[in-house]
Specification:
Layout (H helix, E strand, L loop, with lengths): L2 E5 L2 E2 L2 E2 L2 H11 L4 E8 L3 H8 L6 E6 L8 H11 L5 E5 L2 H14 L4 E4 L1 E4 L2 E6 L4 E6 L6 E5 L16 E3 L30 E5 L10 H10 L2 E4 L1 H5 L20 E5 L5 H7 L4 E6 L6 H4 L2 E4 L2 H12 L1
Parallel strand pairs: 1-4, 1-6, 4-5, 5-12, 6-11, 7-11, 13-14, 13-15, 15-16, 16-17
Antiparallel strand pairs: 2-3, 8-9, 9-10
Helix pairs in contact: 3-4
Function: The electron transfer flavoprotein serves as a specific electron acceptor for other dehydrogenases. It transfers the electrons to the main respiratory chain via ETF-ubiquinone oxidoreductase (ETF dehydrogenase).
Family: Belongs to the ETF alpha-subunit/FixB family.
Protein name: Electron transfer flavoprotein subunit alpha
Length: 314
């Protein structure tokens, strides 16, 4: 029978919702047990949140001062050691998961399965290739542990349940590398919803025209309570920081509502939004590729249409 170890992603003592999505993927394997592994310097708050996720059998914790910051070089040897006896190790396909999972796979001597979007069997999965233009079925060797990253946009977050899974502390004898050290974390601070987990996202593209003009995107997003994203063209032009980039080389998202404003719709961008519920496009070019995937489209000047939309919303 399968036993799955899900690696918890967290920051500042808060569990990332991507972890619950990875648990959903784990549940699809129909395993005997799903355990969540929390690595931190202070594990209590994160472990308590993980214990409430429906379907979780146990929460395992490794509390070490070296785990204060999520350095892949430091976490991977501990995860590989903790993975003994597990048939699968899952991590969300986020910046965190893409950083740590390949190292875990290398330490375990297996090939990683990336961006799992559906489970066809205990060792058979579907994942996107060619910027999402094709879906491939991959089969992992059943004789070895499966290390996989989970495409979070393809999975719903497992619900938080009333029951709490037991929390157990692990004590592992593992040597940690000293050549990698944490220096600092620079990230944008915002009161807006998190881009990767928001139910509504408003994104701006090259058509917005400038960093100053992007204020119209922020204002509209705040009006409807949405997170703000951007196309790669807008990021490359310096309108917004790169953590706002949506697409194949940015964030893969699945909001209920996605509004693409001044975005032409390059295939790399469409890859990042293909799982969105409703797509609304605003662009002055009626032939823009974005209209091929949009549920609703407005052709016209965004600087005239956005204020009109704001007035209509009231």
């Amino acid at each position: 029978m399968s036993k799955i170890l899900v690696i918890a992603e967290h920051l500042d003592g808060k569990l990332n919702s991507a972890t619950a999505r990875a648990v959903s993927a784990a549940a699809a394997v129909k395993p005997e047990a799903i355990d969540v592994l929390v690595l931190a310097d202070n594990v209590d708050a994160v472990a308590a949140s993980a214990a409430q996720i429906e379907g979780v059998s146990r929460v395992l914790t490794i509390a070490r001062a070296e785990n204060a910051h999520p350095l892949a070089a430091v976490l991977a040897p501990q995860i590989a050691k903790a993975a003994a006896g597990y048939s699968h190790v899952f991590a969300p396909s986020t910046t965190f998961g893409k950083d740590v999972a390949p190292r875990v796979a290398a330490l375990l001597g297996v090939a990683q399965v990336s961006d799992v979007m559906s489970v066809e069997g205990s060792h058979t999965f579907k994942r996107p290739i060619y910027a999402g233009n094709a879906i491939i079925t991959v089969e992992a060797d059943a004789a070895h542990a499966v290390v996989a990253t989970i495409r979070t946009a393809s999975w719903p977050a497992a619900a938080a349940s009333a029951n709490s899974a037991p929390i157990e502390a692990l004590s592992l004898d593992v040597a940690l590398p000293s050549h990698t050290r944490f220096v600092e974390l620079k990230q944008g601070k915002s009161d807006r919803p998190d881009l990767q987990s928001a139910s509504k996202v408003v994104s701006g593209g090259r058509g917005v025209g400038s960093k100053e003009n992007f204020e119209i995107i922020y204002k509209f997003a705040d009006k409807i309570g949405a997170a703000v994203g951007a196309s790669r063209a807008a990021v490359d032009a310096g309108y917004v920081p790169n953590e706002m980039q949506v697409g194949q080389t940015g964030k893969i998202i699945a909001p209920e509502l996605y509004m693409a404003i001044g975005i032409s719709g390059a295939i790399q961008h469409l890859t990042g939004i293909k799982d969105a519920g409703t797509i609304v496009a605003i662009n002055k070019d009626g032939e823009a590729p974005i209209f091929e995937v949009a549920d609703f489209g407005l052709v016209g000047d965004l600087f005239k249409l956005i204020p009109e939309l704001e007035q209509a919303i009231g």
